[in-house]
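thought: fold this chain, then report.
action: predict
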Amino acid sequence: MLSKTAELESLMREKADLEEESHHLDVEQKKLNLRAKALYEKIIQEMRRTNTEKQQTLNQLQSKIGNLENQLATLSGSGGSAGSEETPAEKSDDSQNDQIPEACEEEIANADDNVTVAEIEEEIELNSGQDRKKRKFF
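observation:
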């Protein structure tokens, strides 16, 4: 009977040890869940910040495009009407236009579709896979 009592006590100690281990594992799991939640919140916050910056950049680009479209409409619609204020870029365009030979001016005046080509000296980074390349667009 003594051996059965010792065996029973041994089983009870093992059960108590396992319950204690289970409790420690539950506590550890709760800590890890809180840490994971905090990291998810930080990632979400960072993504929101990044998206806000991207949206601001898009808005600025849309504004620039609108301004450029307005300048183009003004230049092509007004035909250089007097009294309108010119930006420094427009003034430099006018000084370049003064250098066009008369034969070219007549061809431009007679053309149905005028195309303006401008050099843009802004480098744009392209991401293709893991390679980052900088190229100049003209």
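thought: worth noting. The two ends are 97 Å apart (CA to CA).
final: tokens above.
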